[in-house]
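Dear support,

I submitted the protein below through the web form. The confirmation email said the job was done, but the results page showed an empty box. After a refresh the structure appeared. I'm attaching both so you can tell me whether what I see now is the final result or a partial one.
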Amino acid sequence: MVPVRRKAEAVSRLESDRVTALHGAGGELMGKLLAERILPRFKLRSAGPIGLDALDDGAVLELPPGQVVVSTDNHVVKPIFFPGGDIGRLAACGTINDLAVMGARPVAMTMGLILEEGFPLADLDRILTSAADVLAELGVALVAGDTKVMGKGELDGIAINTTGIGVAAHAISDAGLRVGDAILITGTIGDHGMALLAAREGFGLETRLESDVAPLWPLVAQVLPVGGITAMKDPTRGGLAAALNEMARKARVGIEVREADIPLRPEVQAVSELLGIHPLEVACEGRAVIGVAPDRADAVLAALRGHPLGQDARIIGHAIPDYPGRVILDTGIGGRRFLEMPIGDPVPRIC
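What the results page shows now:
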């Protein structure tokens, strides 16, 4: 009778409002966590009878014709709830966006949760709902996942791993720029990083600034049929400066951008000046940098502006033959300087 009583006591711990070590131990408590809190949010987004619904060890996917694109990412953002989103929405959007900028329609996703013992289950519910809402919006299936629990103090709350699977007719590389291509940005830059920085404890900043975190695929899907896109990249860690430098280095071309044409919210500019952080080096989570053949640039810009996520899109520069692998910033006051690759994102724990 003792083992039975201990089991009953252990199962009753699921009624607690916080994660316990047993929630990640692979037994009945973990099963109840999956069945009662995690799976219901993704129930209609699974791959079918073989996979998440069956709680099998893997998923079997039937993908449409095309090139299969796979991307994976870890998310350790702090704070986990921030103006405009949370770690759940960020994890889903971040992986979907990595697929989208390669021209791939997101089809399926996996999710691994690492939780600190004592993490509030109400917060977990909120995070999972945010991620599930993104997948539901795009019709993306959650096909596999895993949950582990670490001891109190061994982890800062929660970390999420996501892997996305997409299909592209012809995958787009961020190395495809050609001399003469126009460089477009789909919206204002620096919103995500500055919103998180303003929200962090100790800064005492008051601002209405919100993260730009959003899934890019609906915007990209609207623009791809216009044609002429040679390269795409989402400016996450290291911001626009890192994205442009990486594109220039991979394509072995120079890039010249006009500082006055880069869309920037006044709130971002104000916070960046206050803290001494250059807004071009701060992460975005709902923007894309797009290289476009010069004869299609205006048409792509019009298509971008026809979508809510692209209303602030701009042509900000061009790929040039000079200074291959470097980025030139035209300051608009008669000066030009190199826009260097950042050593790292000045805002840690950004995504």
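Response: this is the final, complete result; the empty box was a page-load delay. The CA atoms of residues 95 and 164 lie 6 Å apart.
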